[in-house]
Amino acid sequence: MDLNNDQLMSYINRLENLNDEITALSEDKKMVLAEAKGAGFDKKAILHVIKQRKKNKQQREEEDALFTAYENAVGLD
Predict the structure, then answer these.
(1) Does pTM top 0.85 for this prediction?
(2) Same domain, 32 and 46
(3) Which of 26, 33, 53, 65 is deepest in the core (most CB within 10 A)?
């Protein structure tokens, strides 16, 4: 395998920069969630809504029906 050291170093630097950006974005996300919590909103509910918004109506309805069937099967009302 013929290694191009400059090219390899370029990939490494780019990945390190991306990791730094990911870390910074994670911190920003924590700050926004903390701000929302301070305003009286529930973090878990917010994250659930974000996850649900990624799905279309049919996917949400199918998931809800499945959860309801499982909950009924184990006696949850």
Answers:
(1) no
(2) no
(3) 33
